[in-house]
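Table 4 source record.
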Amino acid sequence: MAESSWLERPGLDKAAGEEFLREAFQVLLDEAVRKGTDVTEKVCDWKEPQELRELLDLELRSSGELPEQLLERCRDVIRYSVKTCHPRFFNQLFSGLDHHALAGRLITEALNTSQYTYEIAPVFVLMEEVVLAKLRELVGWSSGDGIFCPGGSISNMYAMNVARFHRFPESRQKGSWALPRLALFTSRESHYSIQKGAAFLGIGTDNVHLVGTDERGKMIPEELEKEIQRAKAKGAEPFFVCATCGTTVLGAFDPLDGIADVCQRHGLWFHVDAAWGGSALLSSKHRHLLAGIERADSVAWNPHKMLTVGLQCSAFLLRDTSGLLQRCHGAGATYLFQPDKFYDVTYDTGDKTPQCGRRVDCLKLWLLWKAAGTEGLARRVERAFAFTRYLAEEVKRRDGFQLVLEVAPAIKERMMRKGSMMVGYQPHGARVNFFRQIVTNPAVTKDDLDFFLDEIERLGWDL
């Protein structure tokens, strides 16, 4: 076809595209949503890498395929993927499927906008502002700032960067050369993103001081005080403390008031990584676990975990109202953030983050919140805690589970190959491997938790 004729007509066949979408959405509904949440279906259809490559035919070729072939590709992708929405998927801190949140995710993809300026994302700029304000209100702040981030690890990294800029504003321009040797503090049970963030930001992992914890995995404030004194004695400059609400392995909630007292005494930035446990703030029964969080300078909170919003939905919240995020990260790109626009440019929030293009992560949470209400979200949290208590009591009641803990890797392999369920395992200190069972999926019932225990016994009976 001559190049001149290309200019006379659209480059896409809209009618064919819409028909393909209609059929693809039916595949999505049948295979991913219905079968993916059906307890009688497998959690995964496990294949070894070489076999899976051959089954999927991943090669990209010079000519395209027919719609029928593409739809079969879609079915294969779903068939051989792990069904994280399955009631017996317990492997990660995220699981389950909320249909309203999924609708929000699909609309987000269809609109395909970037949330950096009001002119290109007017609805979502206003929506993000409302959702972040609601999250801050639950923390206990009547004002503040914030942004949705690409994951909790990045939220923690933002906190470290903002804290350094707040303490040493010259660091933005002069870099680490102009700074003393910095020291930051977090518990031994904290998320590994603190170590990664220290490396990425040039602070150095040697300057991450790991604070001792009690037998439940909670940071000991007195040990934090000692670590700060040790760092000062070595000539380091403490600037940042990260407490955790809902540690990755033990689910521990650090004593925030005690840690806040130490931070206040030494003038340190107090950050709370509540990526996992922040949603307990929605429940009047369980928000006491985060008592003192209102004293934090910043908070990381991942609604995509306990609230089943869907990956990813991670909020970085600040108590600061002085524009610290903007001053720390802003570059004022003139092709995006022109100061002479015809509308109020304070709604152009994209310069608060190191990102340029920024995915819309607020719609799925907003739509879910609209559907369930705050009370419905609170019930979701309380249900997760109730099932956790039930499972703990069942484990105590059953004989033999201490022995099973020692063969977790072998049981995990059998579990995966069978596809009956999925749960993670790991060692902890001097302890042998144990299963890290996570209950957040609102589709889970007592039968699923009983199945979990029964299946471990069945899979490990001969080990």
